[in-house]
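Usage

Read records sequentially. Each one opens with the input sequence:
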Amino acid sequence: MNLEYGSDFHLMASEEFMNGEKESFFDEKRFNFFISGRSSLYSLLKNGIEKHNWEKVFIPSYYCKEVLPELSSLPLEIEEYKFNPFLDSENKELSLEDKSKNVLISIDFFGVNKINSEKYNNLFVIEDLTHNLYSIPFSKADYVFASLRKELPVPCGGITYSPKSLYLSQGKKDETANEVSLKKLTGMYLKKQYIEGLITNKEIYRELLKDGESLLDIFSTDILMPEICNSIVKKINVIKLLKLKENNIKYCLKILKNSNIRKVLFNLGKNKGMGLLLKFEETEHQNYVRDKLIKSKIFPAVLWPEQTLKRDIEVQNTMLFIHTDFRYNKQDLDVILKKLIVYIKEWKSLKY
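and closes with the structure output:
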């Protein structure tokens, strides 16, 4: 076995993760499927321009910056509003024009924080639930979109949905999009082989996954999900996987609550979300822990790079995200937590 934790999903196609003949979480009658979350958002904004005469879109300052270039081709004014889930509460006052020709993108940040968008009467609300798929059935927004590969073991994919049953555009086919799913799926399969000790060269699957991600940038408009991904998404037991992840987070927080690193746990007491959110006081502490974890084959993420506002850059440079999803059992989680506690304490002892 080549045990490592985090980063891209490996292929998980065993029966315990599949629905069998049960109804899919993503019912075809309610959802439209696109190649990525970015394509899903593009589709919703294009649809809003055509159906509702949208002129301006409000996007939070703390956001994945890779999303913005794709949107610049649309005839919409893009305005960022200051919101950071590590710094602001959901009741923060935002000076947004409450007009029907405006649309607000509200993000559920990892299941632990989001703005209160229900106070607006006129502008439309699109909720980004990429980092909290579990809350899709409970959304009260006009529209919802999400990338699927952040929480589910799929090569690519995104969805659009309207809790208010508003019209959703269908998107368009592109046969070359299958190349993305094939590269990603092959990479996921080879990563599984690597983890199980059947191959030793991890660069093979890493290059395939990297190439697949690069290809996704080409399909930035409203391109439909490739059929390969479509068939996988509809068979996955989404509720079971999300519940397993929630239980893992709960287990981790229970252990860490009694440790002396609880001060860096941003989502202490919050069982939902994607994993553990750590917020350090200093960049040096973040860097030390991150480097140590990587050397131990635990791969944390920084969400998200390339921020532009000073306050968002400071958060980018002091937070880490640790994967604790359904890939891991309690023994795996114990390995991750033990090393995490050691490295956080170790840095403090070295400094002081």
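Summary fields computed downstream for this record:
- The chain is about 35% helix and 15% strand.
- The CA atoms of residues 86 and 315 lie 7 Å apart.
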